[in-house]
Amino acid sequence: MADINETDARVFIESVTHYFEQITGHAAEIRTAYLASNKLPQFEYTGLIDFSGQFRGSVYFSATSMMAARMLLAMRESDTSNSNLLDIVGEVANTIAGNARKHFGAGLEISTPTTSFGNRVALTSPTRARPFAIELQWQQSEAVVVVDLENNI
Amino acid sequence: MKLLIVDDSSVIRSRIARISNESRLSNLNIIGLAKNGNEAVRICKVMQPDLVTMDLTMPEMDGVSCIAELIGMHPDMNILVISALSDRTTALQALKLGARGFLNKPFSDKQLIDALMEFQGAKE
Questions:
Q1: Which residues of A touch B104 (CB under 8 A)?
Q2: For residue A11, what are the CA distances in angstroms to A8, A61, A83, A101?
Q3: What's the mean pLDDT when you consider all of chain B?
Q4: What ipTM describes this predicted complex?
């Protein structure tokens, strides 16, 4: 079972910065990217995609309520209800995972997003001992992308 | 031009609708919003859109199955895939099934308008 490397992880960093730039016109700033060891970072609103096929694991995008609301407003969506805050974090996770197929190929099968609010731990049984965590800031609000991905081959 | 928007994200459905309405494309009329392939097929059995924007990763019936079903019903239907799945294999599969265009997520307002204009130009 081959482990993914730094180049693979960079795909997700580029994908999430591109998302913000494309949708809002303002790139997100990557504050830090690291191998998480203990408790995985997470904020209030989380969207998670599971991987299957030639890979296994998950990726999640987790944002503060302020960031999720500001993203909606940047997209000129005035409805910042709880359901739309959940919807946008699920859509970001879906886009990051889908874009990763350009690098990993169609063998990276992705699920539809599941979303959660609050303190419930998004990733209870990580595939990797140390998933990648990418912390970012955009318009003075915070989010994190956690990549837990392994090659099945 | 009758437009049907298919995407499991309500935020994206609203965004596509908003950009389309603001685009000043002449005679563009949104006839429906569907959150999966099953809903899209049901709508297309009642009214035939000229253009469908189609997400691929959706619950119940995904976009690939839906494209096959819609083209089976209406071979001349214009389908613009709007998806985050950015690998070449997926794009080719959608086009082979009968989709006429592919726009990657995330997309800007201008990219969507340009894509819609291609279809309007083809219809006129």
A1: 99
A2: 5, 14, 29, 10
A3: 93
A4: 0.91
